[in-house]
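Bench log, entry 3. Co-assembly request; chain sequences pasted below exactly as received.
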Amino acid sequence: MMNNLEKLNQAFVDAFAIDKKYLKDLVYKGVSNWDSVGQMVLIANLEEAFDIEIKSDDIMDINSYEAAVLILMRKYNISF
Amino acid sequence: MFDLQKYSSRLAIRSDIGESITYAELTIETEKFRDAIPYDGLVFILCENVMGSLLGYISCMTKHIPCVLLDGSKDIELIQHLIAIYHPEFIWLSQKRVGEFVGTVIYKYENYSMLQMRYDRDFSEKDKEINPNLLLCLTTSGSTASPKFVRLSEKNLRSNAESIAEYLQIDENERPVMSLPMYYSFGMSVINSHLIKGATILLTDKTVLQRDFWDFIKEEKATSIAGVPYTYEMLRRLNFFCMDLPYLKTMTQAGGKMISAYVKEYVDFAEANNKRFVVMYGQTEASPRMSYLPHDKAVDKYASIGIAIPGGKFSLIDAGGDVIKDADVEGELVYEGENVCLGYSEKRQDLQLGDENQGILYTGDIAKRDVDGFFYIEGRMKRFVKVMGNRCNLDAVEQFVKVITADCACVGVDDRISVFVTQNGLEDDIKHFLVAKTGFNQSVFRVLVIAVIPKSNSGKIQYPELQRML
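Structure output for the full assembly:
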């Protein structure tokens, strides 16, 4: 079983084909794979990993790795 | 191309970082741009959706300077490859990229610079001649570094812009949000069809997934938005139907076939909210627009690409080349109109060529016509798919994969390309390589390992069989 942080990291790694070590500072458009398509893939991955439905507003606000952590904690009660 | 003086007091462009320029100022800036160029030649524009980039494009169009629009975010290797083939005399590019090229900066506007190029072994003057009718070249594929360009004349662009402005009823009060890339023919046509009517272009490099985008279009009271099918798929997910956008009256969709059920949602939404959702069809080769679905017919005909644009004409031909007269019979869609490109180019010398198409375009799309005269796309004759609105040749993708493993085959549907291989363990390598080569998001590609690639007795890959395995 993966813990929540591992799940989160895996969702990012799968979405952007990027090594884990780069995740911390990752932002939207910061790597070529994090474009609009990548964003939608990331959202789908997060929804599946945590079995949640991410609200429209949050889709726009999950624009960095850090933002993803904060929004998942605050709005979806996921602890890291 | 544009009659800038006619609308001199109007605002021509407003950018998302607060810049604006009137048509009168554009008139002056395009003069300065032209005067800065010491001799005739070809200009490569490395496009970004920022003021400087757009000013360069408008200057070239207004002053009849032949230019090529390229994706300004592409790697230096890809651009160098095209430079080596076309030897542009000048490159108009973002200042931050100037250092990547060898040349002299001879002019600047905002954060864009004009680079005067020199070549150790240049082509002869004769080889560098450019046909006086050629005004603009666009790439045939946004993805690969193919040197194949579509050659467009001022007449092509002008007639298409006029036609679009007519059927969309564009006037000087329009404020379209221009978020599509400028180098993409659909984006370019948004610019052209509005500038010829004195409208105000709202220029942004943000996407619908960014809050800044929505702040910008609300603040600036955007009246229209243009998108490819994927844009509208994202908008559904973003709860677009519930957004408060009273000024946004027109949504246009082109760049590939959108799922009919989604079209219906948008058409119904538009109908109920006094807005218009306009499905359109085109190809870069037609500058690019060929048809539109009149919004008052959209509820009934939502699966259709509509009717030919004003000034254009569609026909269908069968395999023998004969015109199909009956309704509901499939054939190749053929378009006729002043907007059909001059032809293609694959090297600098090709820019001398004249009009090879004479106004007739064989689209390569299989279509049918219903009894009311509306057209429906049923398939494609050629092996390509559209990815985010960009044409992508599956054979070209296959060639890329062959670099990694010879035994492979590619099939696809729009926005998804599947690569079949027989060797295990190559999935990540293939994906990474294709992402690097095409610039598409890696989620577009799927790698499947099978025992054997199905082939006919003569050794031809059986693509339909692979398609069935998906």
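The first helix of chain A runs from residue 4 to 16. The interface with chain B takes residues 15-17, 28, 32-33, 35-41, 43, 56, 59-61, 63 of chain A (CB under 8 Å).
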